[in-house]
Fold each of these.
Amino acid sequence: MLRSEAEFNFYKILNWDEDWKVFAGAGIRNINKYKYGYFLKEGSYQEYFYTYGPQIVLHTEYKLWEEISIHLGLDLFYTEGNRFYKD
């Protein structure tokens, strides 16, 4: 199985504190999966999934010391798409 993902987002940077940054954004996510037959008796069929959908992104960065910081991220997304077989 092969999987590929792509996303396109717009971010707004919120500086709540000198040491704390929050990035909030929204965009589009694309996920594609390709499955191939595992055994000879299954033939050479291929199964494809093409999905697209919206996503919301939150990312925070908190600086503890000059060279050390904590990064947390959250991606919420929902995708719909097509699934089909090809011989």
Note: The longest strand covers residues 46-63.
Amino acid sequence: MIRYAAVGNEPLLSTFNGSFLTTIFPALKNVQSALIKVGLSNQVKVTIPLNADVYDSGNSDKPYDGDFRADTKDLMVEIVKFLSNNGAAFTVNIYPFISLP
């Protein structure tokens, strides 16, 4: 059984220089609409696998002092609201072997 549909893979990665800022949220909504239309929105949830770089810790080592990266903040707030409203997961690809000091 399919439980999740991923829309893109790390589309807001900073190295993409905003290439997908205007298209990823409409794509997410389109996939959700298609699932609703075929009656699968309760079984299959849509999400966007993000890279951890959407989070900016600033100059702090405390996670609660951070925020979404400035260039993605408004979009990320909309995405998080959408995921929450649809009971979908907030997904982040974590690469500890890259993040280690």
Note: The chain has three helices and six strands.
Amino acid sequence: MSLYLASWNVAGWLSTAAKIQQHHGSVESWMRQHKFDILCLQEVKTSDRALAENPHAHAAELVDYETFWAPCRKRTKTGARSSFSGVATFCKKGLCSHADRNVLDKGGELDEEGRCIMTVCRNMAIFNVYVPNNGVWNVQLSLKIKFLAALRTSMRRMRSLGLDVILCGDLNLVYRACDQYPMSRNVDLEACLRAGEDGNEEEEEEGVREMVQQVKDNLGKIEDALKTKVAEEVEIFIPATQRKERRWRFFIVVDGERKVKLGKPISKEESLGYPTSYTLQAGGVKEEETGEFIICHPPMHMRLAELSELMEKVAAVCWSEEQLHKLANSKYVKSRSAPIVKQWIRSVLDDDEMVDSFVEFHSKARCRFTCWDQYTNERYRNEGARIDYILVDKKLFSSSARRGIELHSPSHMDPYSAEAAAWACTEGGRWVAAPFEGGGIQDGPEETYTCQFRAPSSGILYTPPQYSDHIGVSVIL
């Protein structure tokens, strides 16, 4: 008998559950329409006390499902319990034989974060996780590394007990460049400088070789210009408020005399020194316990958007959208996640013999992202990243996994194309961006809340943008 498992970062369960109840009567009715057997939620942002005081608002007591919760139990500076992070797993009654929210360090600092809960269903240990992000200035990278190490140890322990392992949730990482918006991908400039040394230029797509040569010819000039980089306070007009406001902006000097501005205005002065903005230097943090320097941004790597801007403003080389697309999908481009984090997931996939269920079924899919910045309406331009995953032990996947229906797309489009991915983000334009003058995301017509319901599939669930800045991922086993 197959099992349909879904995972979703809800960015605050109470507000999401309220919207689901508004549009579908109840959370349980919504789950039945999706045909979920197991639903793993991340970033529920609640507390044990809130759950006990108002289980109905949390949909914590359902007829056909059991719910298991791991809220954040850390205390804030004032001594109150934090409602940050938190995960929850909903299982059809009779499926789950065991649940544990103290699986990383036996109820210690990591478990108190409320980022992991493990449920045993049939012969499967399902880890529902919300992995820490790097944080502002990468201050949480050390925590992230500790979390991932403890998680891997716990997964291995479950295998030693004879259980198959499933890891699902928001992993806050991108290990494949194609799972990130093209202009946000990192160009490996060292690789560009080495181009031609291996004798494989003929394998490159037409036009990429010329772009790489342009980078080689002008990189020295770009380096010289970046040495002059300064941040200055500027006054700009904000259409949303109809007022002038103070912002900060980067400037460089080109050819020793021409002053050029870079990027967009920055609202917070402390963001000016962020270690990955317009730099060819390595960025990272010092590990608290060992003192080791952990690289989060390798040297000689730069976002494609920044490189393109510098090529135009410093070297007068303007690349077309077609050229940028080619470079973004070339061997010279990598994802922007920290190398140590990418190494972790590669080891889990290769050494621990797990598979990325989405990649196994949809390896040719492009720009199928699961998270976007809602504040800048990025979903409506499909400028996001795939950071939500369901990883499955290879043996279990090979014996049980099914594809189900194809990725959501109109019949006249290739479902693996970037065009189809952009269509699915907005249901062909039926979900609209928040108005520029403010007011937040608007409610759509009633029918736009039912198009999320499709037959079970191993892929992506396009939940409405009003529910969360993430969408769901799923697998049939």
Note: The mean pLDDT is 93.
